[in-house]
Write a structure and sequence with these properties.
Blueprint (H helix, E strand, L loop, with lengths): L15 E3 L24 E7 L6 H15 L3 E7 L18 H9 L7 E4 L9 E2 L4 H6 L8 E5 L2 E4 L4 E10 L7 E9 L2 E6 L7 E7 L2 E5 L6 E2 L10 E9 L10 E9 L5 E10 L1
Parallel strand pairs: 2-3, 7-16
Antiparallel strand pairs: 1-14, 2-4, 4-5, 6-8, 7-8, 8-14, 9-12, 9-13, 9-15, 10-11, 15-16
Length: 279
């Protein structure tokens, strides 16, 4: 039994129904045979990792190879969690963990790395998927018809306040029954920090490039519920955000916002979008 995963947005955003918004033409994306004439489903790959996990760099390379195939239809987030991500003796003194990442690792019962969640969908009857199976798991979902679209407008950066402002629009393609939440991540790319890598000699890599690192959740670990009851097809829910970047962020220009809608009964991510910060 999980604890309450349905916090509402506090101060960060408000929900409001708007008129119809046209869907972007992302049909045919993904480079596989899951072609659809309407809005296509993107995939969220949450790579659970840690700087003391010696096999995790190979998994990160696998994620990069998949992105080279699928482009922006595959969104990767590096979630640093578990004992492998704890700060330790030099050079592993940094703490890249987040409270949300630790809760995900606990909720999904992560007991070894590397492992990932592919849109938090079951693959071979499992939610946790080893990096050797990421490719077929992604291929089974990507570019299939989407039940909902997630749209992000320009993510504007205020250098004086060190803050960002943007809107997320959620537009059901088909009527959504049940409870659905919106979660928004802040990620930072190209974070240079030590990493152990069993392929390197010596294995301690001082200037390793960490990709798509989860820095914070903007609206709580489990996000916020999108209305009550069913969400009608074609309606629009608009959620505005104003958010101050955390002190952990090293370079705002390397940051992006990742927003996704998921089913609260199964955790499955129905659609995801990413947008970099505009300076």
């Amino acid at each position: 039994m999980r604890s309450n995963p349905l916090p509402f947005l506090l101060l960060l955003g408000t929900l409001s129904a708007c008129d119809y918004v046209g869907f972007p033409d992302n049909s045919g994306s993904g480079g596989n045979n899951n072609n659809t004439d309407g809005p296509a489903r993107k995939v969220l790959l949450e790579d659970i990792t840690g700087h003391k996990c010696n096999n995790c760099p190979a998994a990160a390379d696998q994620a990069k190879a998949l992105q080279d195939i699928y482009g922006d239809a595959l969104i990767v987030v590096g979630v640093h969690a578990t004992a492998f991500a704890e700060p330790g003796s030099p050079p592993y003194t940094a703490d890249h963990r987040t409270s949300a990442g630790e809760e995900y690792a606990t909720t999904f019962q992560v007991d070894g790395l590397p492992v990932g969640l592919v849109s938090r969908a079951l693959f071979n009857n499992a939610l946790l998927i080893g990096d050797g199976s990421w490719s077929p798991a992604v291929a089974s979902i990507i570019n299939t018809p989407a039940d909902v679209e997630v749209l992000i407008d320009t993510v504007a950066y205020n250098s004086v306040a060190n803050s960002i402002t943007f809107e997320v629009k959620i537009v059901p393609v088909n009527t959504l029954d049940g409870i659905h939440n919106l979660t928004v991540y802040l990620t930072e790319d190209s974070v240079i920090a030590p990493q152990i890598d069993n392929r390197a000699t010596p294995p301690d890599v001082p200037n390793y490039v960490h990709r798509h690192m989860l820095r914070d959740n903007l609206n709580g670990t489990w996000g916020a519920q999108l209305g009550t009851g069913s969400l009608p097809a074609g309606d629009t829910i608009t959620v505005p955000f104003t958010y101050t970047l955390p002190t952990s962020v090293l370079e705002p220009a390397h940051c992006a916002v990742v927003a996704y809608v998921y089913r609260t009964d199964t955790y499955e991510v129905l659609q995801v979008e990413e947008h970099g910060i505009t300076h």
